[in-house]
Design a protein that fits this description.
The structure is a homodimer. By secondary structure, chain A is α/β, with parallel strands linked by helices. The first copy, chain A, folds into two domains: 8-111 and 268-344, FAD/NAD(P)-binding domain (3-Layer(bba) Sandwich); 113-265, FAD/NAD(P)-binding domain (3-Layer(bba) Sandwich), CATH 3.50.50. Chain A has twelve helices and 26 strands. In chain A, the strands form eight sheets. Chain A has a six-stranded mixed beta sheet with strand order 5-2-1-9-21-20, covered by helices on one side. A four-stranded parallel beta sheet of chain A has the order 13-12-11-17. In chain A, strands 6-7-8 form a three-stranded antiparallel beta sheet. The longest helix of chain A has 20 residues, at 129-148. Chain A is elongated and about 75 Å long. The interface between A and B is large, with 66 and 67 residues.
């Protein structure tokens, strides 16, 4: 009706990258469509808290529509992207299609079992809310099953937890599991002592948290050991079944009988990366990430941006950027600036540069490690820094007051109130036995 | 070793009745085992808040072990009771058995489709946390699907919600659905207006909330109508499919095209009631509830108590007691007193008498009705009463501060932050279509 057709931007994926790009364009004269398979943005850095019963799913997820409610130039579509037609500038959905003038693909990563796909069932990864509630179910069911187990070896296997991968997620999971068994469940059982649980943290590297300076790795390892976590570095995983994990260090192998194994060892890009590369002639790296130009577009397709965990983006030192939220968010802001410059007819922006704001990890409720520029510190103050930074980040989306409150509550009561076993039980969850009274 | 064998009490079911019985016996010299299939106690009166995204599952559920943590004469077993052997005083479990000296069966009720079991899939009831998250998924998915629907009739069907049964649960669900469409989702969509949603509340009775005095029913109906709910009384349901509901009033039938139908029309006792009756020679009523003696035991089995929604307990006026939490809780206390008297060799307690503390219901966030003795009132103050009473009740278990906080938050922000669509999507959730830009 006389109104000029607006430039249509389609953003695929409502994670940190896609959502920040959409929000940063809130004053731009654009027609933005954000597509996601889920109706919520997930604050992934706190997913381990849901997996261990400390927070509820809704504490770390905010409806995308609520976030973009007042942004009139954006709409949200609950839809699944399946492929791309870059010639006709069209996204294929599971149930339709969508035309674009510019495209941002930010569909992230998922757990990667390096070809051992049969391990997935025995050792779930932690990428979605469903993963988190499934892990929560397994962890708390394991203690319940141990309480009913009369065979000592079987009871011990049910009280053995193996976390594979000692990056921040694996370290945080292992720390939380140790806390659960030492503090949260104290006095809850009558036949077993939850503190007898064994928690193993396994990694191929020389040390845990290899992306941190060695002295911080050492502090983190000490904090984990103080909580009772057994650390196995330079150790490879040879096999995982629902009953055991086969480890190999140097020349000897070890069979660990464990009913609960969690996978935090690696991620691969969403399969849409490969689909996009095939359609555009771009290349993907070994993890399936799309190799992007310095301005985060694809060669020959300045209208297509790939950001976040899906992008393989090399900066000055030749190494690809890590798959962390801060990279995705800075890339989202960058894409917004490039698009605004194009709409306004300004000069094209300079190549993307990542400003590392530092990294941190937490170990249980009392210790953390922080690495910001030249600063390295650990202990209780690092834990407080971690808490503060995550609350501030969460605040950009929502729910921060509730989460702060829930945390304060958990902290002072030692109670993980969200430790519900929900969803379908799996066969074999219960071992038959007599039940002598205590 | 030299300690006299304690009297073994087995309580089957960790709902209001079973849990109160266990707690009331905390100072008794007994060996208590509480069995439940789930690891948590569920505060059912607030389940509709989870189904409509206002609260998280963990806000209304507390781990049974946490509640009984410090009660050293009690233990909790995560197990499924399957049957009873009253001669040998033994409970059969899915995976073992358990011997008792006294038994309390309090396994509650589930949704009852009055023989139309095929309706269950099309119209889920609201008895478990899984029911609630499934209803939440359906409700919020319906708006998402309507946003993508190009056919007007189909879009209208997706924005039509039918609640069957106008007791407190049905009224509270309908009120919450009206609020979601009028307030919560305002501005969230670009093509549909959520306020166009139709919400029908259907009941066979002459009026909604038939257990309340007529003037309160009328006030509640007026409050629902003010929120835009369409009330159909004296209306029977003839059929339910995933696409439509067939209603019959007087002599004419009406086909309502609705993709979301919720069942709040009736409950039947847990099948363990029938199993217990068969084993003991007791009788069940039409809803499968076990008919109990005035002291809540079974004839010929003074050691077996049945309480809560599973019991058919007749008092002075000849009518069975309603299936509400207050009945179950008073019965739990009563059973504890009877058992303590027996252990202490005191005279057997007098028959159980229910002291009706009154009843109340809430309609959305501004109205309620309260009926306490001779008092009847409605409106905002009734809503506050409802809130206060439920918080106090919840407080006996846990989590009250968090829930108060979450409610205050929701109340002042009009935001239902727990409106996550989780779990498996079902086939047919998405209708294929083109997606014109707005």
């Amino acid at each position: 009706m006389g109104r000029m057709a607006l430039h249509r931007l389609v953003i695929v994926g409502g994670g940190f990258g896609g959502l920040v790009a959409a929000r940063a364009l809130r004053r731009a004269t654009l027609d933005i469509t954000l597509i996601d398979r889920r109706n919520f943005h997930l604050f992934q850095p706190l997913l381990y808290q849901v997996a261990t019963g400390g927070l509820s799913p809704a504490n770390i997820a905010a409806p995308l529509r609520a976030i973009l409610k007042r942004q009139t130039n954006a709409r949200v579509l609950l839809a699944e992207a399946r492929g791309f037609d870059p010639v006709n500038r069209r996204v294929h959905l599971a149930d339709g299609h969508l035309d674009y003038d510019s495209l941002v693909v930010a569909t992230g990563a998922r757990s990667n079992y390096f070809g051992h796909d049969t391990w997935e069932h025995a050792a779930p990864g932690l990428k979605s809310l469903e993963d988190a509630t499934e892990i929560r179910r397994r962890v708390f069911s394991a203690f319940e099953q141990a309480e009913r187990e009369t065979d000592r070896a079987r009871a011990r296997a049910r009280l053995t937890f193996v976390v594979i991968g000692a990056g921040p997620t694996g370290v945080e999971l292992a720390g939380a599991l140790a806390e659960i068994s030492r503090d949260t469940l104290r006095n809850d059982f009558r036949r077993i002592n939850p503190a007898d649980a064994s928690i193993l943290l396994v990694d191929m590297s020389e040390r845990i948290l290899p992306s941190f300076p060695p002295e911080l790795s050492e502090k983190a390892a000490a904090a984990l050991r103080a909580l009772g976590v057994i650390i196995r570095c330079k150790t490879a995983v040879q096999n995982i079944t629902p009953e055991h994990v086969l480890l190999k260090a140097d020349d000897h192998t070890e069979q660990v009988f464990a009913h609960t194994t969690l996978w935090a060892a690696g991620v691969a890009a969403s399969p849409l990366g490969k689909a996009l590369a095939d359609a555009t002639g771009a290349h993907v790296d070994r993890a399936g990430r799309v190799i992007v130009e310095p301005n985060l577009t694809l060669k020959g397709h300045p209208e297509i941006f790939v950001i976040g965990d899906l992008a393989h983006c090399v900066t000055g030192d030749g190494k690809p950027l890590p798959g962390v939220a801060t990279v995705a968010m800075q890339q989202g802001h960058y894409v917004a600036r490039v698009l605004e410059a194009r709409i306004n007819g300004d000069a094209e922006a300079k190549p993307f540069v990542y400003k590392d704001p530092g990294s941190m990890a937490t170990i249980g409720r009392k210790a953390g490690i922080v690495h910001i520029g030249k600063w390295c510190y650990s202990g209780y103050f690092a834990w407080l820094t971690w808490l503060f930074v995550h609350l501030i980040k969460l605040m950009e989306f929502h729910n921060r007051v509730l989460v702060l409150f829930q945390w304060a509550w958990s902290y002072f009561t030692f109670n993980r109130s969200a430790r519900l076993i929900t969803g379908e039980a799996q066969s074999g969850d219960h071992a038959p036995k007599e039940l002598p009274h205590h």
